[in-house]
Amino acid sequence: MATDLGMGQPLETALSSCVVSMRLGEALGLEAGTLRIAYYYALLRYVGCNGHTYAMAALFGDELALRRDFAVVDPGQIPEVLELAARYVREANAGESPDRMAAIVASALSELPGFMHESFAGHCEVAQRLAGRMGLDDSLIVCLGQIYERWDGHGLPRGLKGEEVAPAVLLVALAQDAVIWNRIGGAEAAAATIHKRSGGAYHPRMAERFCQEAASILVDLDREPTWDSVLAMEPGGHRPLTDDEFDRSCEAMADFADIKSPYTLGHSPGVSALAVAAGRRFGLLEADATMLRRTGLLHDIGRVGISAGIWGKQGALSEREWEQIRLHPYYTDRVLTRPEPLRRLGNVASLHHDATAGQSLSATARVLAAADAYHAMTEPRPHRPALSPEQAAEELRREARVGRLDGDAVSAVLAEAGHRVPRLRRERPARLTEREIEVLRLLARGLSNRDMAERLYLAPDTVKHHIQHVYDKIGLSTRAGATLFAMEHALL
Ligand SMILES: [Fe+2]
C-alpha cells in the first residue's frame, strides 16, 4: 500500500498486480516455487522506490506525477521517455526565458540516461537491502535487483536479456502494466498494450497467454476486496511473523519512509526510541511499550505519498503544499488499515499531529505525539535549522499549555531527553495508575470488557484484571461497581 503511494498510483495497485500475476502464472502453469516468489515480488516490487526521489524532484518537480505518467509509457520507446522528461523539466522551470529554458531542457535530457541508470540501480539496491532486513528469501532478493530489466535486454541497470531475467520479474512487469491499462480502458486496452510490447518488455509466451485470457484474468479486479483475494492466494500458505520479525519489518518500513527526504533520515527510529523510554517513565505497561515502539517506527509512513520536492523545499510552503503535508497522517492511516495488528498501530500512529492528541483517550497516542514533536524540532528542516534542546523543550511546554499535547506526556519526553522537569507523577485519586484511570474512564462510558480491550490494545483478561484493581482501590465490590456504571451509562 505504501509503495503505491510512493509510485503515485492509486492504493491497491500492487495488490491487484499480485492477483493478476497469480492468475496469469497459474494459466501459464508456472511451478509453485516461482509463483511464491512472484507473489511476494508483486507486493514488494517498489519497496526501494523512495531512494533517490529527492534528486528526482530536484530535476523534474513533482516526481509522483512523473511516475504516474511514466507508468503508462513503454521505457523501451526512447522518444516517448524523452518527451515526458522534457515536459516535466519545462514545468519545473516555468518562468525561465526561452533561451535559458532550451539550455536547461537540453542539459537535463543529456543527463537523463545516466540519471535513470543511477536512480534505477539505487531503487534496486534499497529494495534488496530492505527485503534482506525483513528476512525475505534470497530468490526474492535476486528479483528485486532486476526491477527494471526487460525481455529484449534494453532494461536497466544490467541489460539482462531473455531467460536471464527471472520469470517472476517478467510475469509481474506484465501484470502490473495490465492492471494500469485495465484501469484506463478495460481488458481490451490492457490486451492491446501487452500485445504491442510482447517480445520487448515482456516474455512473448506470457504476453500471448495473457492476451488469450485477458478478460478472465482481469475479471472483477476492482470489485472484489483485493486484500482478501490476495491473502487467499498465497502459494504455499501463510508464513506468520514472530514478534521479533514483526519488529524488524517495522524497522525496515521506518527506513523506507525516512529516506524520502535527507532531512528525515533516522527520524522514525529516533521517535520510536524516545517514545518507548518516555512511555515507561509515564508508567505504561510492557504491551504499551511494544505498541509505542512500533507506532513510532510506522507513524510517518504516509510521508511517501507527498512529493519529495515539498519535503525538501527551501523557503515558505504555499497553502497548497501545506494541504499536501497535512495529508500524511491520513495516508499513514490508510496504509495501515489491514491486517488487524497493523490497524491497531495505524489508529494511534495517525494521530501524531492531531490537535486532539493532547486529550486523546489513549496514553500511547499522547506519548507518541509528544515524542514526535520533540524529535522533529531537534532535527533540521529545509526551511529552518534544528532547534536547540532548550528551544524545543520551551516549544513543547507551550503546546502542552494550549492543550495540543498532553502535559504529562510532555514531561515524560522532556525528562527522557535530559531536561529537568518537575516531579512527573501527580497524585492520582485512590492511587490509581495511568492505565487504571483509562479503564475507569471507559467503564464510566459503559463499554464492555471486549470493547475496552479493543480500545486499549489489551487482552480481555488484562482488562478484567485492571477492572478488579480499580474496584479494589476505590473500595467497591465488583457487583456494586458494575451496577453503578450501568446506571450511570443508562442515565447518560
Ligand atoms: Fe509526521
Question: What descriptive keywords fit this protein?
Answer:
492 residues; mainly alpha; binds fe (ii) ion
How would you characterize this protein structure?
The chain is mostly helical. The chain has helices at residues 2-6, 13-27, 32-44, 53-60, 63-70, 78-92, 98-133, 138-144, 167-197, 204-217, 226-233, 243-258, 267-281, 286-298, 308-311, 319-326, 328-335, 340-349, 363-377, 389-401, 407-416, 434-444, 449-456, 460-474, 478-491. Helix 2 (13-27) packs antiparallel against helix 3 and helix 17 packs antiparallel against helix 18 (340-349). The protein starts with a helix and ends with a helix. The model has no long low-confidence stretch (mean pLDDT 92). It binds fe (ii) ion. Fe (ii) ion binds at residues 300, 328, 352-353.
What's the pLDDT, averaged over the residues?
92
List SSEs in N-to-C order. HHHHHHHHHHHHHHHHHHHHHHHHH
- Main sheet properties: none
Distance between the termini: 41 Å
Count, helices: 25
Q: What structural category characterises the helix and strand content?
A: mainly alpha
Number of strands: 0
Oligomer: single chain
Fraction of helical residues: 55-70%
What is the radius of gyration computed over CA atoms, rounded to a whole number of angstroms? 26 Å
Q: List ligands, each type once.
A: fe (ii) ion
- Low-confidence runs (pLDDT<50, min 5 residues)? none
General shape: globular
SS strand fraction? under 5%
